[in-house]
Amino acid sequence: MADFEQVNFFTDRAVQDDPYPYFDWVRRQGPVWQEPRYGVYLVTGHAEAKDVYRDPATFPEHDAASGTYSSCNAVSGPFVKFSMPVKGDDITDIIVKCRNELPFSDQLPSFDPPNHTAHRHLLMRLLTPRRLKENEDFMWRYADRLVDASLAGGGSFEFVGQYAEPFTLTVIADLEGVPEGDHSLFRDELSTVAASSAQKTHKPLEFLYERFAAYIEDRRRRPGNDILTGLATATFPDGSTPGVRDAALIAANLFVGGQETTVRLLSFALRMLAERPDLQKLVRDDRELIPNFIEETLRLESPLRTQFRMARVRATLGGVDIPAGGTIMLAPGACNRDPRTFEDPDEFDLERSNARQHIAFGHGIHTCVGAPLARAEGRVTLNRILDRTADVSISEPDHGPAGERRYDYLPTFFLRGLQKLHLQVS
Length: 426
Fold this sequence. Notes:
It is built from 18 helices and ten strands. It is α+β, with helices and mostly antiparallel strands and 426 residues long.
């Protein structure tokens, strides 16, 4: 694609399938560049993205109006407008009045302090070290079951549908205490969430809210020794008890966030393992390399393609003036290949010393709280598949020969991921 200036990042399939030449071109314009179609300020600089991510943390969190940037449009970006006109050099009051008009406005990634602080505190009650350890024990057992089922058909299987999707859904369901009898119901209902999001449905997670609200109400009546009881009885930092809806909202946020991006991480990790016999041998021979393998996968193929912020006040970022109300688009996949931070950024370096500096999980107060869970799922999955196979390779009948691979990617600007990954195993 020769004329990158005319690219529509949000709809062009060629860019969705391979965004990196476009990101390289944008980066040459500067670490922050105003995209002409929608006027968003696209951030490809690693340092500049970290400045935006950690901006609220530099201000007192008791002040709801603190910070240069708001997360109110974290998901909706420039595509849904406030009902009030956005004008002036400080639009904090407009954000406060209108933020609930935006899609996903009831989800943690769209919150600002102090609301974000209170709800993140509540979410951490779900992720205690003890509960994560119990959940990892479950992961090992469930990974064995899925690998058995996947390998039962012979020498090939489709990794995304047969392993990654059921694994991540069931692991997060176990973590949150969803009754096993409801797992299939959750799987069926959540298959519609991506479509709802693409259609800009205001609150596409109502199913999850309703189910978790029912669980929490039950645990408040009849406490048990489980994680849902812990969430049902948790309090905000000021000691107040959250409403059932607030608690259900937190559980729903973790459920969806803990599944979709991890599916993409696992599939990219397995593709790298299968495409690179040299890397596969190194990791087979030394499993201590797996954690950095996962970090380098996250850096090279970041599952989250975009996150947005709205400038509360007139600001300057990367030498570019941004008006109040301007939309900033953070592109982790571009920032994680910034040569100012990562040497030979387009290469997969198993021994890269700063691989974990990637921002695939965000940064600052909006760092994904499920990051330890995703890393554990990656570590368990790679170990189990390597344990049970002598070799893993890409299925040439499905994806073509080496050098001429054909992969189908998610048709969305929000996530980057493989739709299918067919593997040959021995």
